[in-house]
Amino acid sequence: MSGPSPSWSATQCSGGLSCSLRRRSARSRSWSLPALSLLPDRWGEALDAFFGEYEDVYVDAKARAAGLFRVTKDPADAPDAQGRFWHASQVLDDDQSNHDWAIHAWIDLNASDEAETPVVRVWRVGEL
Predict the structure, then answer these.
(1) 53-106, pLDDT tens digit by residue?
(2) CA distance from start to end of the chain
(3) CA–CA separation, 53 and 72 (whole Å)
(4) 107, 72 in Cβ contact below 8 A?
(5) Where do runs of H (alpha helix) occur along 6-118?
(6) β pairing state of 101-108 and 85-91
(7) Cβ neighbours of residue 60 under 8 Å, at least 6 residues apart?
(8) Is the four-CA dihedral 94, 45, 76, 90 of positive or negative sign?
(9) Exposure pattern of 30-53 as b/e (b: 16+ CB <10 Å)?
């Protein structure tokens, strides 16, 4: 992370694995998430909204389970009608197990073929 101290803190699970994020204060929203396409201030806004409803988001093995990851092939609302896209959603494992927020991303299949690596663009974090 870079910039001012983050407004989120990670709690530790056994074995030193980070299992949840918890809001420390609402003062700083500048949080750098490298290699993702949302700007840091947009991540802060999205997380502020999430943590307005929940205390924790878990990032342990249960939070990464297949049931919390969704892919829609050839979605009707693709960003470019001429392209080939998948819509991927990683549902956030909140402390109340509501699972009503997600990280939404577009997987650009044409760009992925050209780059020979997945081209994933996060376009929003929010309610399902």
Answers:
(1) 999 999 899 999 999 999 999 899 998 888 899 999 999 999 999 999 999 999
(2) 27
(3) 27
(4) no
(5) 40-53, 109-115
(6) antiparallel
(7) 13, 17, 19, 20, 93
(8) negative
(9) ebeeeeeebebeebbebbeebbee
Contact between residue 30 and residue 47 where contact means Cβ atoms under 8 Å apart: no
Whole-model pTM over 0.90: no
Q: Which tokens go with 123?
A: 């376009």
Indicate the residue type of 60.
D
Structure tokens that stand for 4 in this block: 């001012």
Q: Which of 47, 49, 51 is nearest to 95 (CA)?
A: 51
Q: Give residue for tokens 């979605």.
A: 75
d(CA 70, CA 73): 10
Domain spans of the chain? 8-127
